[in-house]
Specification:
Two copies of one chain form a homodimer. Chain A is an alpha/beta fold. Chain A has helices at 41-58, 96-104, 113-124, 189-201, 206-211, 221-229, 233-257, 273-286, 289-293, 306-320; strands at 2-11, 15-22, 27-34, 65-72, 76-77, 82-86, 91-94, 107-112, 133-138, 142-148, 151-153, 261-265, 296-299. Chain A folds into two domains: 2-112 and 304-320, ATPase, nucleotide binding domain (Nucleotidyltransferase, domain 5), CATH 3.30.420.40; 127-300, ATPase, nucleotide binding domain (Nucleotidyltransferase, domain 5, 2-Layer Sandwich), CATH 3.30.420.40. Chain A has a five-stranded mixed beta sheet. The interface between A and B is large, with 47 and 47 residues.
Chain lengths: 321, 321
């Protein structure tokens, strides 16, 4: 096994994204493969192993790297590499670390996907310094990773960064967590699509429905974003509502943690200016001035590679122990 | 100057609280003196110096300690020991560290009062371990100090922990910071008194007014707490409102930071069960279950000595550099 090379895996509900990189985080080869989680845990584990082997081969290596970092959906225990629950994989109580170590005979480090995305942006992002960085992803749901004083902060129980469950509408709709008005019920791809579907149900949102090919089932956050980009007022209103809730949620982070950088990633953030402007408007209104003065809020500099490079970074850190 | 002894000062708007302690934080002598901030900066500096000398003498020392830690109201720059603004002292742009070093010829460490209270509870509090502790004070206003991964976390600009300006009522009343519905406008001694005065203005709150000696001007948070303890429904409603807002504010901390301990101090928290029960009710409703499971929310174990012992702890840390 190569000691000066590491592997990183970003394990998602729809795709496995694997890379082989050197100790400076330079990617030597990368591979994307569909997860096909429906085929079971063993199938997914086999696929992860296959992508690591293939990426190693494409990088011209005779063997696979000795250290593998993998980012997975949580909640999980990074110390034991144990996944408690990953709804989008259909997993519950999976000892990912030991299963992969057995299969590949390498050292495996498991991390929460949002935490590793934060680590990736912190280690390899193009932001020019600072020791505090908050990474927030707005996708199907929300995720958040905290780099504080130059280190990943995970909390007493590895459950820090639960941004999706910050209450932003005390009397809002019921969230899957049992609380009302959680940020995720307004600021997520799922919520954006839900708002548009509710309009369609009321016979409104005709331009959005048109953009979805005429079928209510075809409405996604991406469809709403496209309609907004074309100037549709109702789509713009949805993104305004989502952006303002997101800005309010971020104001809690900015007031409490006074970070120098907030990085926003995830599919829903691709909605562009209407969403970002509403977010910035509400954030500036709600966060105290002293904490806004030196703050920068920026899109992920590594695009959809934040998590992958975070997995690489975690493997590099493990290789140094 | 004694090298194995330190001094700590808790500088407040109404009193100066000074102690001399050994390197294990055991207090050898302590003194309280009124601040009398109205008499000017030089007067207050002279008084701080006098209390340090007197406490040293009472501890049986022939000279004053070589290291002095002092907690002061913020916003301030702890690196330079420079106070930007301390409204309750009437100070603006005061280089406290250099002024005190000149006056006393000892090494001075300046910290934000809420941060030092967090440090005091973390170093000397009776909680049995854990590496994350959030200290929240509910007094005239609010303050918050964060101990994360075993260290004081201050943010990019020494402005972390701005709990008083978390938005809890988006359309609420205007705060001095310019935002609406800040937590401090509901959860503070000032707010509790204001709610009761508003009732009196409307000809209501007769029991509270009675407890205040019949004069609206006499209504304080302490008066409201007393009326509530005697069973007055209107006073209980005020504390319920305050407690629930506080619980909502704490839920943001618990969801984002997953601490094992939240410590509540400050005069307003002395209102007792009606306030604490409402706080716990709302916190449990709003914070996610995984982060509540191992959380303990407790009153300050050091009483009104949290800040003083934090100042001592900061002097001990400085003496080790």
């Amino acid at each position: 096994m190569k000691e000066n090379i590491v592997a990183g895996v970003d394990l998602g509900g729809t795709k496995i994204y694997t890379a082989v990189a050197d100790l400076k985080g330079r990617i030597l080869a990368e591979i994307k493969a569909p997860t096909e989680a429906g085929k079971g845990i063993d199938f997914v584990l086999g696929k992860i192993a296959a992508t690591v082997k293939q990426a190693s081969k494409e990088a011209g290596l005779a063997e696979i790297p000795a250290h593998l970092g993998i980012g997975a959906p949580g909640p999980l225990d990074p110390q034991r590499g144990f996944i408690y629950q990953a709804p989008n994989l259909g997993w519950r109580d999976v000892p990912l670390k030991s299963l992969l170590e057995e299969a590949l005979k390498v050292n495996v480090t498991v991390g929460n996907d949002a935490n590793l995305a934060a680590l990736g942006e912190f280690c390899f992002g193009d932001f020019g310094g600072g020791s505090n960085l908050i990474y927030v992803t707005v996708s199907t749901g929300m995720g958040c990773g905290l780099i504080l004083n130059g280190e990943l902060y995970q909390g007493a129980d590895y459950s820090a960064g639960e941004i999706g469950h910050l209450t932003v509408e005390p009397d809002g709709i019921l969230c899957s967590c049992g609380n009302r008005g959680c940020l995720e019920t307004i600021a997520s791809g799922t919520a954006i699509a839900r708002f548009a579907k509710e309009l369609a149900q009321q016979g409104k949102g005709t331009d959005i429905l048109k953009a979805a090919g005429g079928a209510k089932e075809g409405i996604t956050a991406e469809v709403v974003s496209r309609a907004a980009a074309a100037g549709d007022r109702e789509a713009l209103e949805i993104l305004n509502k989502t952006g303002r809730a997101l800005g309010l949620g971020l104001s809690y982070i900015v007031n409490l943690l006074n970070p120098s950088l907030v990085i926003l990633g995830g599919g829903a953030m691709k909605a562009g200016p209407p969403l970002w402007q509403a977010m910035n408007f509400e954030l500036s209104r709600r966060a105290i001035k002293s904490n806004m003065d030196k703050l920068r809020v920026l899109p992920a500099s590594l695009g959809d590679r934040s998590g992958l490079l975070g997995a690489v970074a975690s493997a590099i850190q493990a290789s140094r122990l």
